[in-house]
Amino acid sequence: MTAFRSTALAALGLAAFLMVWEAAPRLGLINPAFLPPPSTIPAAFLREIELGVWGEAVWSSLSHYVAGLAAGAGAGIGLGLLSGMFSGFEAFTAWIVRLLRPIPGLAWVPFAIIWFGVQPSAAVFIIAIGVFWIVFFATQGAVRGVDRDLVEVAQAFGFRSPWARLTKILLPAATPGILVGLRTALGQAWMAVVAAEIFGVPGVGARMMQASSLLSTDIVVVYMLTMAGLYGLFDTGFVALQGWLLRWRA
Fold first, then answer.
1. How far apart are CA 110 and CA 81, in angstroms?
2. What's 147's DSSP letter?
3. I want to staple 54 with a disulfide (CB 3.0 to 4.6 A). Which of 48, 148, 191, 231 is the partner?
């Protein structure tokens, strides 16, 4: 299948989806208050921009997103490297990981409020929790998956210290796997943004909850599409960065 045909089919599928979405509330199959037709979304978007609400909400959420992603990914990579490199550290933390890993991010909301109050730092904490485990396991698995023969060759050439093994062998070989985890974390962080802001921290999530309480579902859709668009930009940028970092593999 040619690239042109694939693009045409994708556009056709999107057009069909929008037509069905538009027709359902127009024909009375769905209450427009519950699901507004897509033709009403541009006007709602313009109203939000004119009021200055959209820019403020997006800026707040972006600040939470970037800080939470950086904190969670940084901790995940650091501890994942330690766990992957040292079996003793992995054994020491094994039951801690098994205890904490199944707890969903939303379960930490009460503690986030108690510890940080209804502040941006609480949202950053929730986002970081959501990101941490993805990056931790991706990093640990990538390091564990490095060919042991490479490590032995490195030791034979004098790279015996943990730092030398990390910088010369393990980190370069594990980078592709770590980047896969980071790309997954980009999307997970956006999903965590709404959960982190629904308890009152200003941002996209708080604005969505406010709009839904007033049955302004067109506003809710505006912010849903905003998050999808922002994720697309971040993901596209990350793929470009990933290609640049892994250009040596070409």
1. 30
2. -
3. 48
Q: Model-level pTM?
A: 0.85
Name the most confidently modeled range: 32-36, 45-49, 86-90. Answer: 45-49
Number of domains in the chain: 1
Least Cα distance to 201 among 97, 64, 2 occurs for: 64
User: What are the helix and strand counts (H, E) for the chain?
Assistant: 11, 0
CA angle, 33 as apex, 30 and 34 as ends, to 5°? 60
Residue-number span of the structural domain to which 107 is assigned: 62-202
pLDDT in tens, 116-175: 888 889 999 999 998 999 999 999 999 888 777 666 666 666 666 777 777 777 788 888
User: What is the chain's mean pLDDT, rounded?
Assistant: 87
Residue 31 lies in a domain: no
Q: Does 79 fall in a domain?
A: yes
CA distances from 156 to 152, 159, 173 (A): 6, 7, 18
What sign has the CA pseudo-torsion 63, 65, 68, 74?
Answer: negative
Structure tokens at 47: 């109203």
* Count of alpha carbons within 13 angstroms of residue 133, beta-carbon side: 15
In a domain, 99, yes or no: yes
Q: Which residues contact 204 (CB under 8 A, 6 or more apart)?
A: 57, 58, 60, 61, 193, 194, 197, 223, 226, 227
Q: Would residue 67 count as lying in a domain? A: yes
